[in-house]
Amino acid sequence: MVRQDKIAYLITGFTSTGLKPIYPNEPLVELFIKIILSVGTNNQLRDIAFKNIKCDFIDYEDILKSKRSKLKNSIKISRFTNKKSTAIIEFLKWSKNNFDNFNLKPIINWEYNKIYDELTSINGIGIKLVSSLICFGLRGNSFPVDVHVHRIITRIGITLCYKSPDKVFKIIKSFIPVGKEYFLHAHIINYGKEVCRKLNPKCDYCMFNKHCDFFQKKNEWAENKNSV
User: Fold this and answer.
1) Which of 95, 111, 137 is the last residue of a domain?
2) Separation of alpha carbons 43 and 190, rounded Å
3) Alpha-carbon torsion 172, 177, 181, 187, what sign?
4) d(CA 19, CA 50)
5) At what angle do helices 147-156 and 4-16 cross, to 10 degrees?
6) CA angle 206-212-214, nearest 5°?
7) How far apart are CA 168 and CA 154, in angstroms?
8) Up-side HSE of residue 188: CA atoms within 13 Å toward CB?
């Protein structure tokens, strides 16, 4: 079961702040590399890692011609360099084989199922990364579920407290109002960092606490308030 009323509470609450998230405006290949780099790190370290790539390599072809160890060294500040370097290299190979000059613009005409099938077939790339590309880069109807989104969605009680973000993504994706995917995702990310934190969440200051199972200690949160 998905609590659509609670999705509406989130949208209404975030709308009341008057803040409208701005979509990224950069080439899709660059955006997707940043999405890969963002896994398990913060935006500041992600951006440093990407800047290192731009400084250490002439272009994307240069990355493919170089040893993987060089790329790993460039992105080491972002952590998980084995998986990320593999994903970036394999993604660039795929891009080179399917598009001219690493220009992914034609992908906007692809059906979402094809985008998911193609990109998740690449080693190191999963559903969350692809849904982020569709949401951020293509401004499409996709609602990425990362750790912050997963935490807030399950704490407030929109879905049951499933451990897998991918499972929550599959359950909730058809219930997010069309056109509100990026708005809701971006606000939740910020809220998860500032208010609904993993440790020591600021529940008393949360504008959603009267609707929140976690705060009210209801349903799945009746016994354990500190597991997600």
Assistant:
1) 137
2) 12
3) negative
4) 27
5) 120
6) 100
7) 8
8) 24
**Tokens linked to 43:** 């935006």
Tell me how many degrees the CA angle 136-129-108 measures, rounded to the nearest 5: 50
Distance (Å, rounded) from C-alpha 179 to C-alpha 154?
22
**Domain extent at residue 205:** 4-20+144-221
Buried b (16+ CB within 10 A) or exposed e, 80-94: bbeebbbbbbebbeb
Taking the model in full, what pTM does it have? Answer: 0.91
Are 93 and 34 contained in the same domain?
A: yes
* Unique residue bearing structure tokens 């993604």: 91
DSSP classification of residue 17: T
Contacts of 70 (CB under 8 A, 6+ apart): 56, 57
Count of domains observed in the chain: 2
DSSP one-letter code for 137: I
Q: Tens digit of pLDDT for each residue in 121-169?
A: 999 999 999 999 999 999 999 999 998 999 999 999 999 988 899 999 9
Amino acid letter, 165:
P
Report the chain's terminal Cα–Cα distance, integer Å: 19
CATH assignment at residue 65: 1.10.340.30
Tokens of 32: 């997707």
- 228 assigned to some structural domain: no
Cβ-contact 144, 128 below 8 angstroms: yes
DSSP, collapsed to helix, strand or coil, labels residue 195 as: coil
- What would the pLDDT profile of 14-71 be if each residue is shown by its tens digit? 999 999 999 999 999 999 999 999 999 999 999 999 999 999 999 999 999 999 999 9
